[in-house]
Amino acid sequence: MALIPYSRQSISHEDITSINQVITSDFLTQGPKVQDFERELSNWFGVEDAVVCSSGTAALHLAYAAAGVGEGSLGIIPAITFSATANALKYQSAQISFCDVSPHTGLIDPESLEYCLEQVSEEQKEKTNIVTPVSFAGSVAPLEKCSLLAKEHGFGLIEDASHSPGAWKQEESGSKTKSSSGLWEDASTLSFHPVKHICCGEGGAVLTNSGKLAESARKLRSHGIARPFGENHETPWRYEQEELGWNYRLTDLQAALGISQLKRLDDFLTQRRALASRYLESLKEKPFCDHFELPEIDPGNAWHLFVIRFKEKGKRDLAHKFLKEKNVLTQVHYVPLYRHPYFEKMVGKIRLPGAETFYRGCLSIPLYPHLTVNDQDKVIEELGNFVNQFS
Ligand SMILES: Cc1ncc(COP(=O)(O)O)c(C=O)c1O
Q1: 181 and 55 within one domain
Q2: What are the pLDDT digits (tens) for 67-119?
Q3: Do 107 and 78 fall into the same domain?
Q4: Phi first, then psi: what are they for 2, rounded to 5°?
Q5: In 3-state terms, what secondary structure has residue 166?
Q6: Does residue 317 carry a pLDDT above 80?
Q7: How far is the CA of 212 from the centre of ligand 1 (A)?
Q8: Burial (CB count within 10 angstroms: exposed 0-12, middle 13-18, buried 19+), residue 68
Q9: 370 located within any domain
Q10: Whether residue 1 has pLDDT greater than 80
Q11: Is the domain of 177 the same as that of 295?
């Protein structure tokens, strides 16, 4: 029986044709596909600008740097996220404060954020500081609440939307909060890694309504170099490095794949949502389902991950091993970042209750657009076999 991964890319004939067209063209990088992809992204997301770059990590780094995060800045981030959310702050020599999350959803907890913000000294508030909610697993983070709190304390807001393109949330008030809308955040960042919604091999983007932030991110993406003179100037070849940036460029080959994948994003979302509903409907009817908590039914969830949470301590690790032996690959998203040796050295040994509870039970089971119904049934069946054998 073939392995069922927890996630994987979907590459179509059109995707391959798009790459083939670029590989025989004049520009493999710094050509027209990059601007085309940026225009398509800003249209799809309904934001003013998109700056594409070499990874989701690079997108976070560019967004932080362009927002003015630097030495002495503070970044407040949820403890449940991938290292990149934090690492990109460290690249800018900023300090990090870990905020707790909901034990049910893994999303940043606004009460904990408020507490973290209240601990910030007046002196620190003079600096450029940032809050980065992560729209984890495809659920929109409480962006409105985070944005109000951030503003109140003079912090900027960057949404890490690597998991959530196309996600929205119906609020109790009746309004809709969209991921990457540009309404609550200064910028949001995407990743185009193969396990994400759309892939470029590697790749990322900064989405923003701020022309200034986009201009700065675009310059920093390519060494901090600007071209201050136009084609009609006597030295049109002249470029000037105005600050220190990086080579975070996306190639035209990757951008061509991105354009083709973006055309498929609506379909990918429909497939992910249908599969997630099918998991929810099938699992909640099974008696073995009492052993874990399921994610909430949420029509706007972009379902990057389908995370179940084992109630009994120790069961998650046994389930991961059992399922692997049955060729069903699962993953833990995430070990709270403060538990990693690198961050523990920085912040000491801390344990946040929501993050600990979430982490203890969480297991991401396979979900990707072309997961077949047969494979999905096999995942459900093996989960049942696990519970029968180990309870
Ligand atoms: C929440 C989150 N942020 C950022 C990243 C970084 O993206 P990339 O792998 O494209 O650098 C990831 C990647 O897994 C992620 O899951």
Answers
A1: yes
A2: 999 999 999 999 999 999 999 999 999 999 999 999 999 999 999 999 999 99
A3: yes
A4: -70, 155
A5: coil
A6: yes
A7: 24
A8: middle
A9: yes
A10: no
A11: no
- Round to the nearest angstrom and report the end-to-end CA distance of the chain: 26
At 124, phi and psi to the nearest 5?
A: -65, -35
SS (H, E, C) 82-118: CHHHHHHHHHCCCEEEEECECCCCCCECHHHHHHHHH
Backbone angle region of 86, left / alpha / beta, with phi > 0 → left and psi within -120 to 50 → alpha: alpha
A 10 A CB-CB count for 287 gives: 9
- Within a domain: 367: yes
Q: Which residues, other chains included, contact 232 with Cβ-Cβ below 8 Å and sequence gap of 6+? A: none
For ligand 1, mutation pick of 89, 162, 248, 332 (most atoms within 8 Å of CB): 162
Question: What are the residues whose beta carbons fall under 8 Å from the beta carbon of 47, sequence distance 6 or more?
Answer: 180, 181, 182, 207, 208, 209
Residue 182 has pLDDT above 90, yes or no: yes
Helix (H) or strand (E) holding 15: helix 13-23
Q: Are residues 283 and 350 in the same domain?
A: yes
| 30: number of Cβ within 10 Å | 12
Asked if 267 and 369 touch (Cβ cutoff 8 Å), the reply is: yes
CA–centroid distance, residue 238 to ligand 1 (Å): 35
Under the banding of pLDDT at 50, 70 and 90, the label for residue 18 is very high
Q: Taking phi first (over 0 means left), then psi (-120 to 50 degrees means alpha), and beta for anything else, what does residue 138 get? A: left
Residues with CB under 6 A from ligand 1: 55-57, 81-82, 84-85, 134, 160, 162-163, 191, 193, 204
CATH of the domain at 144: 3.40.640.10
- Say which amino acid occupies 18: S
Average pLDDT of the segment spanning 9-22: 97
Residue range 233-283, pLDDT digits in tens? 888 889 999 999 999 999 999 999 999 999 999 999 999 999 999 999 999
- 53 half-sphere exposure, CB direction, 13 A CA radius: 29
CA distance 227 to 371: 47
Is the same domain home to 254 and 216? Answer: yes
Provide the token pair at 181: 């809308």
Please tell me the distance from the alpha carbon of residue 200 to that of residue 19, in angstroms, as a whole number: 10
Residue 183's pLDDT is: 95
Q: Are residues 229 and 278 in the same domain?
A: no
Q: In terms of domains, do 220 and 297 share one?
A: no
- Token readout for 129 is 């500081």
Ligand 1 pocket: which of 8, 57, 188 to mutate (most atoms within 8 A of CB) = 57
